[in-house]
């Protein structure tokens, strides 16, 4: 089962099963186990066992103890799956540190609204549009013409996910307004996203920033293919960061 679902490079989010009281205590202690540890799949050994990367936080390997148990969310091409695992052993192979783990619950597919967010610095341009614009079927050429005809505002993406983006710019945007963002990201020749539509969820001044605003956008009218491309882009960017 695992071999047909999981492929090398799939992202894993690992968390401890904690009570709210214990989680708050760990947060106060600034423990890494209060939040999410990020890893990736190396290979599926059989129907219950996986080899995965040792989590890294701020450049430091996190040596998960043998026999310790964790919850896991796995981002696959076929969607999100969740389970729990126990660490069987730690190993090092060709300068790569890994874990061999065994799932102690069957993989369960699920949907969730939140996506993993990648912190980044991507220069963008954007234009506010109306509801009529949203109803049109647009391709990349249409979006390029839109930016050629209208004055765009520059901004910087602060983080990006499969659900939206957070960016900074020098103007306040009204909550609920629709924005066309020239994102222009590419995973491969046939997987790229030039522009996305987003609805403003929040626009607030950034303290001590000389007039910059933080904007939070949720994607609107986005195709499944474009969302998948953005998620894959995030995975690949983080993989490059891990290698560095």
Kindly summarize this structure in a few lines.
The chain has 244 residues and is an alpha+beta fold. The chain contains five helices and 15 strands.
The CATH class designation of the largest domain is Mainly Beta
Structural class: alpha+beta
The CATH topology of the largest domain turns out to be Thrombin, subunit H
Spatial order of strands in the largest sheet: 1-2-3-8-7-6
Task: Say how many strands there are.
Answer: 15
Give me the Rg, rounded: 20 Å
The tally of domains stands at 2
Q: Fraction of residues in helices? A: 10-25%
Instruction: Please give the largest β-sheet.
Output: 6 strands, antiparallel, barrel
CATH superfamily of the largest domain: predicted glycosyltransferase like domains
Distance between the termini: 33 Å
Q: In CATH terms, what is the architecture of the largest domain? A: Beta Barrel
User: What is the count of DSSP helices, taking H or I runs of 4+ residues?
Assistant: 5
Order of helix and strand elements from N to C terminus: HEHEEEEEEEEEHHEEEEEH
Report the sheet-strand fraction.
over 45%
Shape: globular
**Mean pLDDT, rounded to whole units?**
86
Poorly predicted runs are none
